[in-house]
Amino acid sequence: MKFITTTLLSLLALISLQISSVAMTADNKPSTPSIKYNPNAKFKINISEVEFRKNANGRQLMARIYQPEGPGPFPTMLDLHGGAWNNKDRLAEQPMNKAIAESGVLVVAIDLTSAMDIPYPANVQDANYGVRWLKLNAAKWNGDPTKIGIYGSSSGGHIAELLAMRPNDARYNAFPLDGGRNINAKVDYIAVRSPISNPFARYQNAVAHKRDKMMANNTNYFKPWESIHEASPQEILDRKESISLTTPILLMQGALDDNVLPITQEQFCKSYNAAGGKCQYLLFEGSEHEWVAEESAQTDKARQIVKAYIASQFPK
Q1: In this predicted structure, what is the pLDDT of residue 61?
Q2: Are 301 and 253 in contact (CB under 8 A)?
Q3: The pTM is what?
């Protein structure tokens, strides 16, 4: 608990901290030096939508753009929605996306393919394509394309963790990007809320509580069933796979979450750190799985922490 409190205070302190440093891109090249981000700033934003891509079933996936008014360049973040791989869309995290954008961040939320249409790894492929697509197009909306972050919720957090650890996976990179042949899918940081870091542990929890819908969400998505282990961020670390560990992770978890248990999140962060990565774990007391869906002191705290975390990626 002392570690969690110290980390929380450190993140919040970044809001006013002035650090002399140069941000780096995914390719370890100096980022645009004109990037200035103040998490306490307040911008008017314009919200628009564009066609993102069509999936294999012909469904048109859309992207929702939250663009701060001003010349920028603004820090850029991709939002990956939750919904247990089977539900929801780009609108799911609109309150969080608006709050982040209003502080001066270009936020782009994309639809992900539902497991009811196509199982794993279809939505990971969408997200991988989304990273590359955003790097190619961010400048159109005055975003900085040289440093891309992800905000992922629940199953979107699971996808974000997979992208962080497997940015060059041939399966995930399956869709070519017109005009972006040489753009990679590496991200520079991720912030996740209630991610499914250990899908099999979550499935076991659903079985124990006789939650038929939650069990069905898993069996719909992981086909063949063995892929629940292959696509488990925790088990990837346990197997000591050759993966990327250069992406820092902020993991926010509700203490009362009985959907994804806090102990599995704490274990994931410990394993990621032990492997050589950097994962910051924050436990939100009195909070359930989707606590940010309602206005509360904890929701406001989550927003402030995410903004402070973004600021830490663009030190002044």
Answers
A1: 98
A2: no
A3: 0.90
